[in-house]
Write a structure and sequence with these properties.
There is one protein chain. By secondary structure, the protein is an all-alpha fold. The chain has four helices and no strands.
Length: 137
Amino acid sequence: MKVEAKLFLYGVIPFALVAAIYAVATSRSDHGIEPVGVVCLVLLAVMVGMAGSYLAITSRKLDARPEDDLDGRISDAEGDYGFFSPHSWWPLPLAGAALLVFLGLAVGWWVFLVGVVFAVVALLGWCFEYFRGDIGI
């Protein structure tokens, strides 16, 4: 995790630099400094710093991973990474439901409600696609 922490912590510098350049560039206009963009860029730098700090603190508490070893091999990472579905049809009905939801925002509330119902069904279908119930008693 040390590499990830450094990646985020080194990312603070460019965002803070861009915020300073943006503040100087917008201050030269007729309207003065544009505060929203400067605040957004500063908060982006803070957010990246927070993520990097969290990863740095967490990396001190955990043992070194095989990814952190410079001489590590792929076979050093053992264990199951989980089950990943090779294919699924559920994103297609979920996209159709999202279409109905956003169409309902423009057309009418009843289309929105129909889209929400279809979205809930499609999302539950996608989440429980391979669930067949508990085995045993």
